[in-house]
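Example: SH3 type 3 domain protein.
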Amino acid sequence: MLVIIAVLLVVGVAHAQSAYVTDVFEITLRSGPTNSNKILKMLPSSTPVEVLRTDKDWSLVRADGVEGWVLARYLTRTTPAALQVERFAKETETLRAKMAEMTEKTSATAGENQALLDRLNRAETELASLQQRYAELEQGSKAYVDLKRAHDELLALQAETAQRAEALEMKNRDLSGDTQFRWFLTGAGVVGASLLLGLALGRMQRKKTGRMFA
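Written out as structure tokens, the predicted fold is:
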């Protein structure tokens, strides 16, 4: 008989389930499954218990480490309203704390977003200014390149003109020297012809004079 009871107790422990003392009750935890058994302690409403086994109208439970018997009709597997209210109150408080934290973070994020937006606006303004300056520099550089090209072309033209002028001057010098030489030859020829003519005329005059006195 003791073996059977022990087996039943083991089976009951193996299949223990959670339950609660029903609302608006304070029940007795007794040493046995009758109202005449000793009261071990009082269990207030919503006290969680572990149901070890049930025998007709009584259930063997463990509450706060103490095992005893309670009337099964005073147990419920549904979470009591008091515990639900308490749990919901805690959850609500947690949600409120999270909401406050999220609101604070949202405010901080909004401030950061505004700061980022201001930085973005400043960056866009600086970019537009830099683009304008770059366009001006590019235009100025193009004008400088054009002026430098024109200057280089003028220098090249000046050098070419100077070279041509020098060549022309040398040619003029050559022509001038040749002309002078020709004039010199012409003059020399005239002088020579004059001398020859003078000599010829002199001879003719002497011959004529000799004939007159002969």
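The beta strands are 17-21, 26-30, 39-44, 48-55, 58-63, 66-71, 75-76.
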